[in-house]
């Protein structure tokens, strides 16, 4: 499995990667033979006519109620059990008001910027995840399908320079969130993990009742563009949030008409122009499109069909000063496989893999493709230009473990077996990248734009740890970086719970090497430092906070949410990036538990 199950499972739930973008409202009266319906099922259905009927509202309501009665009669929602080892994956209640935090160990630096540290993550409604049982089999929601909740720590200085910290959380109010809250009970049937027949039925019943096949999650990331702030997951357009109170302001609909699909959880700002580069994938042609949004966020300035011949999962895009970096790897979405009892998403280990370098405003014909060894990549660390080369740094795994239809919805045992095999096969004295590895390690590709040559480096600082969720000083994005930071997987916790937990953070020194007597010069490893947390303390959403006026790339701090499972206490750690291995300079204890989640960011605020 890749370095953490979060990243793998997260992409699995984006079933809308094969669907058109969501309507702004959930309409249960949508015609099941409409253009929304056909892409979801087999392409062979395309020969059916596109029927549109003017059905009176009373008949629509009757049809909806009959479908609801059918679901209530045939499908039973049951709570999924949560083992003690996964207690901090459980949801928390939404806070009505923020709470002032008074417990601080150490000292927040005087030159730390005022702002908000915000992190996104799943927080399921109705007390936790559900499974459904019916005569067609069983299907189950996964943790990564929980409704998005943003957790925020506001750091401001009062008169006299004293720091004030305030914590609050709030659900992201997507269309499907509001619908289920109004219903006061679960509505969407699980449609990712379980028996094939049950999954297909879930797709169909969700579509007939709500006009869409799954929930809009908005639980993966947060970002800023054009002085506005957004929550995002790949199965929907972003939701704008008021960063000061976390209230959802609505879907980002400025792009209506110019962008008809969701887009990546990791949009990138183009160096120099500040434009936002995005990608979006679909299960029907065009499989992948790229867009460039103006720096003020008000218009789409460029869009291109990349002319892919398959629907490949691409969780992130890279940018350099002049180019877009596109990953076309063999993790494939194919609805026809699901109908045949296989996986909706499959890693084709013998399939082709390539990286495309595209001018910022280019088209499919302008892309220069570089063939690389088949692998799975979810997160890019950074990309930059160096002489004639484009350098791509990323987290790479040799294969991918993707949940799919099976006779049992208890997939955690299977994950644990894979993870135990991987951790037991990892040898700290060996620097070979195991071909069968499903954990991700840091890798680097150097792509020569003149000669077409590819230089590939794997596992560039050894096998001691595996890691994921990379981040850098965002001011360096698109330029040559000296440093990168990643969350370190706690292998014992992975194998014990089926979910990844992160017991530390690593700092990568790209321009410092460490060599061994039995290694060739070209195989030398790069230097790395580790900041490991106390036993049974794990982090999520780590982010780099640049020091105002800082000169060096690592002038700044690492900030992250942590949870001490022994004490059931959630905290925020602030670590000096230049004194990385030393104790945190500040630990802020929160008044509420913060469940594990995905990506975070620090947003400086001036008002």
From TrEMBL:
Its cofactor is Fe(2+). Fe cation binds at residues 266, 315, 379, 599. Coiled coil: none annotated. Keywords: Dioxygenase, Iron, Metal-binding, Oxidoreductase. Belongs to the carotenoid oxygenase family. It comes from Solanum verrucosum. InterPro entries: Carotenoid_Oase. This is Carotenoid 9,10(9',10')-cleavage dioxygenase 1-like. PANTHER family: BETA-CAROTENE DIOXYGENASE, OS06G0162550 PROTEIN. GO terms for biological process: carotene catabolic process.
């Amino acid at each position: 499995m890749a370095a953490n199950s979060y990243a793998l499972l997260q992409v699995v739930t984006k079933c809308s990667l094969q669907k058109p973008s969501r309507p702004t409202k959930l309409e249960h009266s949508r015609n099941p033979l409409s253009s929304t319906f056909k892409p979801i099922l087999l392409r062979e259905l395309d020969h059916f006519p596109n029927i549109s009927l003017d059905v009176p509202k009373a008949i629509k309501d009757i049809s909806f109620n009959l479908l609801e009665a059918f679901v209530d009669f045939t499908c039973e929602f049951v709570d999924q059990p949560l083992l003690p080892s996964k207690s901090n994956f459980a949801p928390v209640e939404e806070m009505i008001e923020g709470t002032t935090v008074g417990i601080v160990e150490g000292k927040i630096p005087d030159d730390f910027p005022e702002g908000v540290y915000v992190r996104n993550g799943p927080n399921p409604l109705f007390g936790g995840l559900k499974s459904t049982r019916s005569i067609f089999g069983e299907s189950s929601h996964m943790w990564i399908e929980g409704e998005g909740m943003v957790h925020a720590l506001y750091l401001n200085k009062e008169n006299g320079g004293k720091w004030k910290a305030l914590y609050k959380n709030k659900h992201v109010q997507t269309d499907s969130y509001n619908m289920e809250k109004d219903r006061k009970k679960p509505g969407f049937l699980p449609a990712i993990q379980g028996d094939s027949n049950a999954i297909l039925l879930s797709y169909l019943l969700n579509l007939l009742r709500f006009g869409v096949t799954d929930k809009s999650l908005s639980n993966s990331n947060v970002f800023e563009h054009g002085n506005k702030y957004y929550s995002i997951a790949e199965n929907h357009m972003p939701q704008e949030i008021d960063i000061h109170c976390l209230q959802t302001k609505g879907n980002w609909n400025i792009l209506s008409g110019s962008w008809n699909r969701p887009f990546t959880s990791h949009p990138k700002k183009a160096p120099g122009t500040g434009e936002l580069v995005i990608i979006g994938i679909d299960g029907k042609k065009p499989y992948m499109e790229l867009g460039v949004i103006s720096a003020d966020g008000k218009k789409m300035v460029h869009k291109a069909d990349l002319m892919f011949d398959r629907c490949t999962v691409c969780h992130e895009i890279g940018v350099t000063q002049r180019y877009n970096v596109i990953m076309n790897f063999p993790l494939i979405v194919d609805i026809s496989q699901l109908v045949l009892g296989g996986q909706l998403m499959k890693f084709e280990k013998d399939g082709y893999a390539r990286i495309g370098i595209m001018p910022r405003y280019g088209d499919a014909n302008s892309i220069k493709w570089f063939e690389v060894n088949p692998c799975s990549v979810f997160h890019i660390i950074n990309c930059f230009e160096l002489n004639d080369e484009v350098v791509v740094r990323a987290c790479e795994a040799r294969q991918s473990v993707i949940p799919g239809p099976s006779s049992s919805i208890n997939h955690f045992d299977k994950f644990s077996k894979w993870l135990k095999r991987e951790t037991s096969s990892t040898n700290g004295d060996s620097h070979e990248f195991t071909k069968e590895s499903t954990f991700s390690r840091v890798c680097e590709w150097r792509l020569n734009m003149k000669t077409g040559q590819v230089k590939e480096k794997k596992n560039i600082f050894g096998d001691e740890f595996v890691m994921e969720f990379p981040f850098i000083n965002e001011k360096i994005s698109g330029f040559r970086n000296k440093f990168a930071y990643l969350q370190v997987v706690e292998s014992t916790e992975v194998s014990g719970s089926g979910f990844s937990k992160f017991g530390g953070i690593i700092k990568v020194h790209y321009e410092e090497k460490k060599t061994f007597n039995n290694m060739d010069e070209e195989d030398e490893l790069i230097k790395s430092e580790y900041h490991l947390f106390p036993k049974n303390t794990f982090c999520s959403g780590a982010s780099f906070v640049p020091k105002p006026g800082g000169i060096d790339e690592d002038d700044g701090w690492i900030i992250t949410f942590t949870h001490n499972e022994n004490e059931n206490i959630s905290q925020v750690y602030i670590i000096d990036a230049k004194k990385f291995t030393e104790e945190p300079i500040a630990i802020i204890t929160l008044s509420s538990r913060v469940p594990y989640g995905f990506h975070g960011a620090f947003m400086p605020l001036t008002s």
